[in-house]
Design brief:
The complex is a heterodimer. Helices cover 0% and strands 58% of the residues of chain A. By secondary structure, chain A is mostly beta strands. In chain A, strands 2, 4, 5, 6, 9, 10 and 11 form a 7-stranded mixed beta sheet that branches. A 4-stranded antiparallel beta sheet of chain A has the order 1-3-8-7, with no helix packed on it. Chain A has no helices and 11 strands. The radius of gyration of chain A is 13 Å and the shape is globular. Chain B is an all-beta fold. Chain B is 0% helix and 47% strand. Chain B has no helices and 10 strands. In chain B, strand 5 and strand 6 form a beta hairpin. Classes of the chains: A mainly beta, B mainly beta. At the A-B interface, strand 4, strand 5, strand 9 and strand 10 of A face strand 4 of B.
Chain lengths: 113, 111
């Protein structure tokens, strides 16, 4: 299995509080991704990174920001959590954009009350 | 972005081959077909991918039609541990090569 960890694995927070989720990889892959998974929607891309300090938006980026100061870490921040951001969040990594496989982490279950 | 269509659910007897179909009629020439599966709430697990030719690995075979508008994932000898949701995905070349997940097929392998 690819070396991807996510922390925390579970979190319950209240509306309006800031939340940061961490994705850590040991594979030295260039690309890292944050997806969210909700019933009826499958997985949807939030943000992705194509290198240190290089990030871009995905299809559901509103309300989220990301940072990547080191190759191995990709942080997802909810500046002011809302109940609509209750979801399971998955991080993925890939060496390149098209051919190389995306490997997924174990996920973080976030509940916003 | 190309989208895929899969049956919502399928059953398969343990030990038999599971054949999971997928339609991707709007796929572009440089877009790959990927298959992942997800067991319970675990992270999606990569199975196989292909562009034009049929592919086989230790987990499964992927058959892609000549016009590339559809494909079939074959699990040659399904086991109970293969019970999962299987996603057929077209990997686009923009947005970092994101994976566009559909609803998938829930495969139930029965004894």
């Amino acid at each position: 299995d690819a070396g991807i960890t996510q922390s925390p694995r579970h979190k319950v927070t209240e509306t309006g509080t800031p939340v940061t989720l961490r994705c850590h990889q040991t594979e030295n892959h260039r690309y890292m991704y944050w997806y969210r998974q909700d019933p009826g929607h499958g997985l949807r891309l939030i943000h992705y990174s194509y290198g240190v300090k290089d990030t871009d938006k995905g299809e559901v980026s509103d309300g989220y920001s990301v940072s990547r100061s080191k190759t191995e870490d990709f942080l997802l921040t909810l500046e002011s959590a809302t109940s609509s951001q209750t979801s399971v969040y998955f991080c993925a990594i890939s060496e390149t954009t098209l051919v190389d496989t995306q490997y997924f982490g174990p996920g973080t279950r976030l509940t916003v009350l | 972005d190309a989208k895929t269509t899969q049956p919502p659910s399928m059953d398969c007897a343990e030990g038999r081959a599971a054949n999971l179909p997928c339609n991707h009629s709007t796929i572009s020439g440089n877009e790959y077909v990927y298959w992942y599966r997800q067991i319970h709430s675990q992270g999606p697990q990569y199975i196989i991918h292909g562009l034009k030719n049929n592919e086989t690995n230790e987990m499964a075979s992927l058959i892609i039609t000549e016009d590339r508008k559809s494909s079939t994932l074959i699990l040659p000898h399904a086991t109970l541990r293969d019970t999962a949701v299987y996603y057929c995905i077209v990997r686009v070349s923009n947005q970092g090569g994101k994976l566009i997940f559909g609803q998938g097929t829930e495969l139930s392998v029965k004894p």
